[in-house]
């Protein structure tokens, strides 16, 4: 499911770090952890009480009026409205419960002059999309995917590396199998579904993304923005669109928009969310 979320600032404080993404992720995860799992179905219509939270991903915040301070790496929200594209891997039948769960919830960021606090005041569901066997996407937030090597270290691989397409496929299939207990024991999932094809279509922009937690501690990730074409079954396309492609999606990585000659645009509070 995809929601356009409207937030209203209630605090006088309005300056917070550009590295707010971890704090936003933590707030959203806390809300979804508080859900009654008996009231929710996963994207495939199954009840899955073994999950502590249904997977999600999200875009960056869009503000009505704001100022970026690149020197101090802060955002000053001059207005009072922000919006967010939120995706959750739950069934359409859950929409009323998600609305009940999220509207009225608070999201706060540790700011330089006090906590910057928002309230979710509106939640609009985007109708479910019709996925084809071949789709073209544009990253809304950088896509993060690493190769775990034998030493226990992580190797960052650019999407134009020959190994990337197999890593992408393996990650997508492993995530799909996690929804079905009978599939989780399959080894070497990358050997299945030979029809899956991944192809980059644009210049690749490397992003060093820094997250700062509530204690001011920072973690750095290397992720990439680019356009890509994916040939895969519609059920896998759906999984990637609503749950994010790649890894660490609940930190906001791998959120995508559909890109095609007849692509649509959704607007919310004057901001283009998808393109």
UniProtKB/TrEMBL annotation:
<dbReference type="InterPro" id="IPR045747">
    <property type="entry name" value="CRISPR-assoc_prot_Cas6_N_sf"/>
</dbReference>
<dbReference type="InterPro" id="IPR049435">
    <property type="entry name" value="Cas_Cas6_C"/>
</dbReference>
<dbReference type="Pfam" id="PF01881">
    <property type="entry name" value="Cas_Cas6_C"/>
</dbReference>
<protein>
    <submittedName>
        <fullName>CRISPR-associated endoribonuclease Cas6</fullName>
    </submittedName>
</protein>
<keyword id="KW-0051">Antiviral defense</keyword>
<comment type="similarity">
    <text>Belongs to the CRISPR-associated protein Cas6/Cse3/CasE family.</text>
</comment>
<feature type="domain" description="CRISPR associated protein Cas6 C-terminal">
    <location>
        <begin position="130"/>
        <end position="258"/>
    </location>
</feature>
<keyword id="KW-0694">RNA-binding</keyword>
<dbReference type="InterPro" id="IPR010156">
    <property type="entry name" value="CRISPR-assoc_prot_Cas6"/>
</dbReference>
